[in-house]
Amino acid sequence: QVQLVESGGDLVQPGGSLRLSCVASGSIVRLYVMGWFRQVPGKQRELVATITSSSRITNYADSVKGRFTISRDNGKNTLYLQMDSLKPEDTAVYYCNAKLKWSDPWGDWGQGTQVTVSS
Asked: Rounded to whole angstroms, how far apart are CA atoms 19 and 21?
């Protein structure tokens, strides 16, 4: 079982940047597939980006492709999401999650971190 704590959310102007962090503990995190999700009140949670254990393969939602970059530091058990050229529609609570295999369901959710893009 992996425990996850997200941080880095803030209020930022359109066109600005933020970097989110997710510290993982409780298991051999470096073996896990990890991902970032986001959720707006009243809508389903959306998958934003995923990264394999070795960082070899990353995938992005079309809405963030070219603007967001997912990365990880297995030595620090930390997952990152660099968000550039932010838009008001990126406003959401952002969550990270992890699973051992692609076929597994995602694990328990943390508290998330709020990102607000507004002038």
From this structure: 7
